[in-house]
Specification:
Number of strands: 7
Order of helices and strands: HHEHEHEEHEHHHHEE
CATH architecture: 3-Layer(aba) Sandwich
Shape: globular
CATH class: Alpha Beta
Number of helices: 9
Oligomer: single chain
CATH topology: Rossmann fold
Strand order of the largest sheet: 3-2-1-4-5-7-6
Number of domains: 1
Structural class: alpha/beta
Distance between the termini: 27 Å
Strand content: 5-15%
CATH superfamily: Vaccinia Virus protein VP39
Radius of gyration: 18 Å
Largest sheet: 7 strands, mixed
């Protein structure tokens, strides 16, 4: 199955913000309910160790992504020192997006006890502001970008000397496309339990079902647009600048494998080439 560069409804500038927010809220609800990104916790932990960072700049965060659960899981894996104190400081997570869902970001910030914050302006993943420091991450969003733009996102991280982690739930496989229908059905049935509750969410889900239609359309298109590990390997091979260590593959353990790409700059003494 070849990659198809099509469009998704919610990424279009003309798509109404209330509907976009409803869609990203639903995705965030589903990802949290399924704990979909739990298998990548060890990979993310290695990336933090490799970059010696405790700050994360999450790009294309949508409704807040999986960070409430991931933060708890990462903190739980850290062993305490003999005196009972944590060995390293708490993670600092900063959510960003080109079309920020500030209401969702505020909810995530509150639910996390202020451990997760957000950037108050639009952020282009290809041109991340210099003041945003830390490991860069993207969850279920890298496939939105055609090859030239996807490579520009990686090149921007390399130019800034920052680590980057790409994690994708959609896969270009018939089985994953089939699972998308079940995922959207779950979100359709679970809409009344998405918090905070809003009557408008019921309107656009049940009376005028634009949100579930957009979820299904965008979900199927996402699968068709996703990059495979071998395509990611070819992409990083064309990057220029400082030497990086790249790790890519598929993390198993959930309902569907998660495609990932993680890059971190090599120390000067380890510049023996890319992996």
């Amino acid at each position: 199955m070849r990659r198809i560069q099509f469009f998704e409804l919610h990424e279009q500038a003309w798509f109404p913000s209330p509907l976009r927010d409803g869609l990203t809220d639903a995705l965030q609800f589903g990802i949290r309910r399924l704990r979909a990104y739990a298998p990548i916790v060890p990979i993310l932990e290695r990336a933090l160790d490799a970059t010696q960072s405790r700050s994360i700049v999450d790009m294309c965060s949508g409704g807040g992504g999986p960070w409430i659960d991931l933060t708890c899981q990462l903190e739980a894996r850290r062993a305490p020192s003999p005196n009972g104190q944590k060995k390293v400081p708490d993670l600092q997570i900063l959510l960003t997006d080109k079309f920020p869902n500030f209401r969702a970001f505020e909810n995530v910030k509150t639910a996390s006890g202020n451990r997760i914050d957000f950037y108050p302006a639009s952020v282009d993943a290809m041109k991340v502001p210099e003041e945003l420091q830390g490991l860069r991450t993207m969850f279920t969003s890298f496939h939105h970008f055609p090859p030239d733009e996807a490579r520009a996102i990686l090149q921007n991280a390399v130019d800034a000397g920052k680590g980057i982690g790409i994690f994708e739930l959609p896969r270009r496989a018939p089985s994953t496309i089939l699972l998308t229908f079940g995922f959207v059905l779950m979100l359709f049935l679970g809409t009344p339990w998405i918090r905070p509750f809003r009557w408008s969410r019921l309107l656009w889900t049940y009376l005028i079902p634009i949100v579930p239609f957009a979820l299904l359309f965008d979900g199927v298109v996402s699968c068709l647009r996703t990059y495979r590990p071998e395509e990611l390997r070819e992409m990083v091979g064309g990057l220029s600048g400082r030497e990086y260590r790249w790790e890519m593959g598929e993390a198993l353990g959930g309902g569907t494998p998660i495609t990932y790409l993680v890059g971190s700059p090599l120390a000067p003494s380890l510049n023996y080439g890319r992996r």
